[in-house]
Design brief:
Largest sheet: none
Distance between the termini: 20 Å
Structural class: mainly alpha
Number of strands: 0
Number of helices: 14
Number of domains: 1
Shape: globular
Order of helices and strands: HHHHHHHHHHHHHH
Strand content: under 5%
Length: 296
């Protein structure tokens, strides 16, 4: 019975998202960073739209957050992604201490890439770069994960709410989680191939290494997000965890020497092969934990 909804959902998810990602990639290659970001946010709602088009019932995904009984899991969804990001960045910069740069050159490079207006606005404020680095870090730790809940919900309804329960039912918990992580990662491949999403276009092993590395990231993260969903029974908690990762992942890049911008396949963000080690280890530990019932 599970396959009757799963296959149409997956077909719609990829059929809807891949053309949108191609458009986003085209915008990125044209230098229109703002349009790229907006289109990628729109793309996050494609799994939700796919579930609607596949006629998957969405009423039982757990729409009540149950904050009173789930407050510990709210803290876990909010803060553990930040902790794993910090640990991963620490591992990366311990391996490559010369790449740690507090001068703000990376921040200025990001502003310049966003357009001359953004750079001019910053220069007009005449505030030290350190102030903006601190505000970005503070945002990732406080309100940004909650703002990110809503676009993240577009994906989480599809991945955690629709796909993973059916994969786990058919293949068992462990195999279902591994397959789900691979599918989630592959869903991003067009924008990675065409525009160098997350890793750029100039790293060694492009594009295959980046595609595989990102699947490791989505698998490990997906295992954690599935735990949140399992423990709370509410789709809001994996959406918060997803939003927290998205909020925190870019902060370590602000202290990376721009000379190494073509080597972010290694880090310092958690989707890097070295910086992702804490997240990967946590995913392995969660994957190996005994299942409550059913096949492992």
């Amino acid at each position: 019975m599970c396959d009757k909804k799963l296959l149409p959902y997956l077909l719609w998810s990829f059929a809807l998202a891949w053309p949108v990602q191609a458009l986003a990639a085209w915008m990125a290659l044209q230098g229109n960073t703002m349009a790229f970001q907006v289109i990628m946010i729109v793309c996050m709602f494609m799994p939700l739209l796919a579930a609607v088009l596949a006629r998957v019932p969405l009423g039982d995904l757990g729409w009540r957050p149950g904050l009173r009984q789930n407050w510990k899991w709210l803290l876990a969804a909010w803060l553990i992604p930040v902790l794993l990001t910090v640990l991963g960045a620490a591992v990366y910069f311990l391996c490559f201490p010369a790449r740690f740069d507090l001068s703000g050159k990376a921040f200025l490079a990001q502003l310049e890439a966003s357009g001359p207006e953004a750079l001019a606005q910053y220069q007009a404020q005449a505030l030290p770069v350190s102030f903006f680095l601190l505000t970005q870090a503070a945002a990732a730790l406080t309100y940004a994960p909650f703002v990110n809940i809503f676009p993240s919900l577009g994906e989480e309804i599809g991945w955690r709410g629709v796909m993973l329960p059916r994969l786990k039912e058919r293949f068992g918990r462990r195999k279902g989680l591994l397959l789900g992580g691979l599918i989630w990662g592959a869903w991003h491949w067009p924008v990675m191939l065409l525009a160098g999403y997350e890793y750029g276009l100039a790293y060694w092993g492009f594009p295959v290494l980046g595609m595989l590395a990102f699947c490791l990231f989505t698998t490990a993260l997906g295992i954690f997000l599935d735990l949140l969903y399992e423990k709370t029974g509410s789709i809001w908690y994996p959406a918060l965890g997803h939003g927290a990762v998205n909020a925190a992942a870019g902060v370590p890049l602000l202290v990376l020497d721009p000379a190494f911008a073509n080597e972010v396949i290694l880090g310092p963000s958690p989707h890097g092969l070295i910086a992702g080690i804490p997240l990967l280890l946590s995913g392995v530990l969660l994957l190996l934990r005994p299942a409550k019932k059913g096949r492992a």
